[in-house]
Amino acid sequence: MGNGRKQLGAWGEGVAATRLEAEGYRIVTRNWRCRQGEIDLIARAGETLVFIEVKTRRGRSMGSPEEALTPQKSRKLIQLAQLYLAEHDLDVDWRIDLVAVELDTSGKLLRCEHIPNAVLGW
In percent, how much of the chain has pLDDT > 70? Predict the structure, then answer.
């Protein structure tokens, strides 16, 4: 199951990156990792640095992709974004977006929705 979930996540991140590039975003980094965790995608939208969480779901048995962005996960994303900015000595405008990728149970893409400013409160 773990390997299938990893493959689904990687596939969803590819779909999300393609969607964002079509919207004019420039992907800077994929799967940035540090000891505290991982950021799926980091992109530039003009002068703004955008940290992107991608949630991919097949069917609704685990809820919608949006439901997976819990307050705890949101806090973790803020922490990771701040670590990235410090590590790269960046003083720029930034935000955290969500891309919700949803498939039906057979694997057909139902939607790929980009939600800017999905995480607020920092």
Answer: 96
Q: How far apart are CA 98 and CA 66, in angstroms?
A: 8
Q: How far apart are CA 40 and CA 80, in angstroms?
A: 11
Q: Which of 51, 61, 28 is nearest to 99 (CA)?
A: 51
pTM across the whole model: 0.91
Q: Is 121 exposed, middle or buried (0-12, 13-18, 19+ CB in 10 A)?
A: exposed
Taking every pair of C-alpha atoms in the chain, what is the biggest distance, in angstroms?
44
Domains of the chain, residue spans? 2-119
* Euclidean distance between CA atoms 68 and 74, whole angstroms: 10
At the second CATH level, the architecture of 2-119 is: 3-Layer(aba) Sandwich (3.40)
Confidence class of residue 68 from pLDDT cuts 50, 70 and 90? Answer: confident
**Cβ-based neighbours of 82, under 8 Å, separated by 6 or more:** 122
* pLDDT value at residue 81: 97
Are the beta carbons of 80 and 33 closer than 8 angstroms?
no
